[in-house]
Design goal:
Layout (H helix, E strand, L loop, with lengths): L17 E5 L1 H10 L6 H10 L4 E5 L9 H10 L4 E5 L3 H10 L3 E4 L19 H13 L3 E6 L3 H11 L3 E5 L1 H8 L3 H20 L3 E5 L7 H5 L4 E6 L1 H10 L1 H27 L4
Parallel strand pairs: 1-2, 1-8, 2-3, 3-4, 4-5, 5-6, 6-7, 7-8
Helix pairs in contact: 5-6, 7-8, 10-11
Length: 274
Amino acid sequence: MAAPGEAVPQLKPLRHLRLGVNIDHVATIRNARGGRHPDPLRAAQMAIGAGADGITAHLREDRRHISDSDITRLKAEITRPLNLEMAATDEMLGIALRHVPHACCLVPEKREERTTEGGLDVLRAGSQLRHCVEALAGAGIRVSLFIEPDPQAIEASAALVGAQVVELHTGAYCERALANDAAGTARELARIESAARAALTAGLEVHAGHGLTYGTVGGAARILEVAELNIGHFLIGEAIFTGLGPAIARMRAMMDEARQDARESVHKTARGRP
């Protein structure tokens, strides 16, 4: 806090908080019946029109939703960066190197899971992760690791694996919020905030995502170290009731409002006001 008469410290401009929209579950609906409707590419284009800064698609080993042809079409036709979520396997590495998306997010993957259940075990899988990171980065692809908000995972991501970005798993925070556990929600959000600061200090760009809703996005958006939020399942679900464009536009507006509140709070603190 500045003392009376002292110059107010100049804060660095805070970056626009990016919204990545995951379109996997548009493909889930398509695949439930077969055919080509609804089209994930059309959903991606609508998402961009509604305020998405990028599109995320997870090509799973079992191809349960997004297909290889979806990735080909998305890479060729969308006007915003494509973030390919993938397991750190030789098959997926080869696919990524053929398509060269803007970014790849390495995630843990198990056939029996309904959705990604947690972050990567960076310490145990360090050698394979480093191999993938080096190959992808060598092709000019920006690489992130999906990890728990844990200090050891952050340190290993930077020092052992050499990642450029980490995406912090927000699942536990969102689960506690859905359970109306105020103390648990606050505790998990504090973990994410602490991890984001540690990651930024380690030289990593910080993203966050998994399970975020209208009720939980504000807490994540107020963490100024976070540069990007990735949201999918909730938005596709809301689209059933309100339409995809309005659902994304509302999320975009809530993110922007929360980020602006956080920015104003920082300025007030710097100027010595409560």
